[in-house]
Automatic annotation (TrEMBL):
This is Cytochrome P450. It comes from the Eukaryota. The chain crosses the membrane at residues 6-26. The keyword Metal-binding applies.
Length: 215
């Protein structure tokens, strides 16, 4: 009985290695080969680590690392981008306008990153998660909406109304806040954006700004 149980565990472990670890490792090898000409921080020799050992949970320390690498790449005329490895997966940082334009102006690279697959059970493969031909078709359907100037002019009243509420809320924060002390504007901006999008795109008044974050 013990021998049977150990055999089953061994088989499961073997299948896990063959069907999961081997393909993932092979893809990592291909990525390393494809990105070998991109500068990156020294990668740990320990498998599956990448640059994780250099990440810091303190956000300001990690941000300083990225800024330092970006400045270094900008000084090197032949570079302009660098790569950090999050375990087996590379993250490319474009540090110059020329490099960024290469990605933005490329109409062929329409495949979303691996992270989008987690949204597919919820959103299926719509405009946000689809790739290539399917994405082009969906995008072509909504393109006229972004080029109809008269449609945008019709929404100016909503833009102005919600912007006035936004300005009034900021004024209240300045009046009651401590002089010289910073405050987080993100909740105010996001709620204003939500009000504008909900009313213009869906015709619904959600009053996100008036509900003081209770929406």
């Amino acid at each position: 009985m013990v021998f049977l149980a150990s055999s089953i565990i061994s088989i499961i472990f073997f299948l896990f290695i063959v069907y999961y670890l081997v393909p993932v490792w092979m893809k990592h090898i291909r990525l390393r080969r494809d990105y070998r000409n991109i500068t990156y921080l020294p990668i740990s020799r320990i498998p599956f680590v990448g640059n994780i050992h250099q990440f810091d949970k303190r956000s300001h320390v990690f941000s300083s690392l990225l800024v330092r690498m970006a400045k270094l790449c900008q000084q090197q005329q032949e570079q302009g981008c660098f790569c950090l490895w999050h375990s087996l997966w590379p993250m490319i940082f474009a540090c110059t306008g020329k490099n960024l334009a290469t990605f933005i102006n490329n109409s062929k690279q329409l495949v979303k990153s691996f992270d989008y697959t987690f949204l597919e059970p919820w959103l299926k493969t719509g405009l946000l998660t689809s790739n290539n031909a399917k994405w082009r078709t969906r995008r072509r359907l909504i393109t006229p909406a972004f080029h109809d100037t008269q449609l945008l002019h019709n929404f100016m009243l909503i833009f102005n109304e919600q912007s006035c509420i936004f300005a009034r809320r900021l004024g209240e924060c300045i009046r009651i806040g401590e002089k010289g002390k910073a405050f987080d504007m993100f909740p105010y901006i996001s709620s204003c954006t939500l009000d504008i999008i909900a009313e213009t795109a869906m015709g619904e008044h959600v009053d996100a700004q008036s509900s003081e974050g209770k929406n």
